[in-house]
């Protein structure tokens, strides 16, 4: 499990405001593992609990449960998942992103598990998107990428590994990645060449709908 005691302790030693998003799909083991790999659901939930335990009463990191909506019936949500949701600062459910990075209007008639494959092309931006170099995606094995779409499927996206590299080194590589992208454009990286994600710097986050308000004691595991 990546988010064990050592990594959780190091994250909680950072004395400045920052956010950690726990990305979990569907709400139960079957849905998540079918998308992320066998046994990844339990490891993700345990890791989230570990991080919150080490954070204690501290305000940082701010921890959000970021659930991808795969159309799973809420009645089948896992009890440990709901328990984690109750302890996080925010629980939000979002529509999966389409594969080419564009932001289409969600189509209710589309199978949620296929939504990310939808083709919603438009004029392609050339500059760096607001993720590149600012938002880091971490795989269950600790590999770090500047892109949550391709992650480490493309060697260009590998910035390092949390187990082996310092955060200073990883952040330095992320900054260099963005700088090259801003100067040379998306065609300079094959993983960005066909992406339609909007360009620009990070935007103030939209206030999420906090699903914790829907939790009742009978839904939460003790």
Entry summary:
The chain is built from five helices and six strands.
Blueprint (SSEs and pairs):
Elements (H helix, E strand, L loop, with lengths): L4 H8 L6 E7 L3 H8 L3 H16 L6 E7 L10 H9 L2 E5 L42 E2 L4 E3 L14 E2 L5 H18 L38
Parallel strand pairs: 1-2, 2-3
Antiparallel strand pairs: 4-5, 5-6
Helix pairs in contact: 1-3, 3-4
Beta-strand residue percentage: 5-15%
Number of strands: 6
**Overall residue-averaged pLDDT value:** 82
Number of domains: 2
Low-confidence stretches: 112-119
> N-to-C SSE series?
HEHHEHEEEEH
Rg (C-alpha, Å) = 18 Å
Helix count, DSSP H or I runs of 4 or more residues: 5
Largest sheet: 3 strands, parallel
In the sheet with the most strands, the strands line up as 1-2-3
- Level of helix content? 25-40%
Give a structural overview.
It is built from five helices and six strands. The protein is of the alpha/beta class and 222 residues long. The chain folds into two domains: 1-94, no CATH class; 97-203, no CATH class. The strands form two sheets. A three-stranded parallel β-sheet has the order 1-2-3. It has a three-stranded antiparallel β-sheet with strand order 4-5-6, covered by helices on one side. The longest helix has 18 residues, at 167-184. The radius of gyration is 18 Å and the shape is globular. Residues 112-119 have low confidence and may be disordered.
């Amino acid at each position: 499990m990546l988010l064990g005691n050592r990594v959780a302790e190091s994250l909680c030693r950072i004395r400045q405001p920052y956010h950690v998003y726990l990305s979990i799909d569907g709400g139960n083991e079957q849905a998540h593992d079918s998308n992320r790999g066998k046994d990844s659901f339990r490891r993700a939930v345990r890791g989230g609990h570990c991080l919150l335990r080490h954070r204690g009463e501290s305000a940082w990191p701010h921890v959000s449960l970021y659930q991808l909506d795969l159309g799973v019936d809420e009645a089948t949500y896992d009890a440990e998942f709901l328990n984690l949701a109750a302890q996080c600062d925010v629980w939000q459910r979002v529509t999966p992103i389409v594969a080419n990075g564009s932001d289409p209007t969600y189509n209710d008639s589309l199978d949620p598990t296929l939504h990310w494959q939808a083709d919603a092309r438009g004029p392609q931006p050339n500059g760096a998107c607001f993720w590149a170099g600012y938002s880091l995606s971490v795989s269950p094995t600790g590999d770090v990428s500047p892109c949550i779409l391709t992650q480490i499927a493309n060697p260009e996206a590998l910035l390092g590994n949390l187990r082996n590299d310092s955060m200073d080194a990883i952040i330095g590589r992320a900054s260099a990645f963005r700088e090259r992208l801003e100067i040379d454009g998306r065609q300079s990286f094959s993983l960005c060449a066909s992406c339609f994600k909007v360009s620009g710097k990070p935007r103030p986050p939209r206030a999420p709908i906090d699903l914790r308000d829907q939790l009742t004691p009978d839904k939460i595991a003790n």
